[in-house]
């Protein structure tokens, strides 16, 4: 019985320590309540992408747009800086407020199955976390949850390039169907259930 109790405590402490501290990456759509979104459908090749704004989102890349259909994308307009970049793409809310969750479809300029992706999350200019993801297939939805007000993103040809977190190494990112909002807290129902159990035991 003692061993069981100790394990239970350790799990609770670990969960409390990680809650709210970091920005986490995930694959697959999880946002349920959408507060803003951009489908990039009106972007034309040669459009300036240095201060693109749509649906409450601002997406900045120092380049002009090129339109093509990366594998796994739906054939509508995308956010794709022509010929790649040697610097990150910056994503913020146009109103300057914080994200709690941000998602978009991800591909790369090489059209390869796996995108070697690096996202750096910032809050008021302070780095909250670097998130490295090998995302496959092209067109998968990636997401980021936590408190941040800027996400800087880059996609590399090789994992070894990505791992260096070097913004000047050549990168090429394709994105579509970007949105931000909230994810129902996975712990909320469980915590309520646990509180209910404690209450039942005390009544006995
Ligand atoms: Ca689109
Ligand atoms: Ca801020």
Question: Describe it for me?
Answer:
It is globular and about 40 Å long. The chain contains three helices and eleven strands. Helices cover 20% and strands 38% of the residues. A hairpin with a 2-residue loop joins strand 3 and strand 4. The N terminus is likely disordered. It has a single domain, classed as Jelly Rolls (Sandwich), CATH 2.60.120. The chain has a six-stranded antiparallel β-sheet. A five-stranded antiparallel β-sheet has the order 1-9-6-11-2, with no helix packed on it. With 204 residues, it is α+β, with helices and mostly antiparallel strands. One calcium ion binds next to loops. The site of one calcium ion has 7 residues, from loops.
């Amino acid at each position: 019985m003692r061993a069981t109790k100790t394990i239970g405590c350790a799990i609770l402490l670990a969960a409390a320590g990680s809650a709210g501290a970091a920005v986490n990456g995930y694959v697959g759509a999880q946002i349920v309540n959408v507060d803003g979104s951009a489908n990039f459908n009106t972007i034309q090749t040669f459009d300036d992408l240095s201060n693109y704004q749509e649906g409450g989102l601002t997406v900045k890349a120092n380049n002009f747009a090129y339109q093509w259909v990366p594998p796994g994308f739906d054939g509508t307009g995308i956010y794709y800086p022509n010929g790649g970049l040697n610097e990150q793409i910056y994503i913020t809310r146009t109103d300057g407020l914080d994200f709690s969750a941000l998602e978009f479809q991800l591909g790369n300029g090489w059209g390869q199955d796996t995108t070697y992706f690096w996202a750096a999350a910032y809050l008021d200019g302070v780095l909250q976390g670097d998130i490295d993801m090998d995302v496959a297939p092209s067109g998968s939805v990636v997401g980021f949850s936590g408190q941040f007000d800027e996400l800087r993103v880059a996609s590399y040809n090789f994992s070894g390039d990505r791992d260096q977190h070097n913004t000047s190494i050549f990168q090429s990112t394709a994105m579509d169907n970007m949105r931000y909002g909230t994810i129902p807290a996975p712990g909320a129902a469980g915590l309520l259930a646990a509180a209910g159990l404690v209450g039942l035991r005390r009544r006995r």
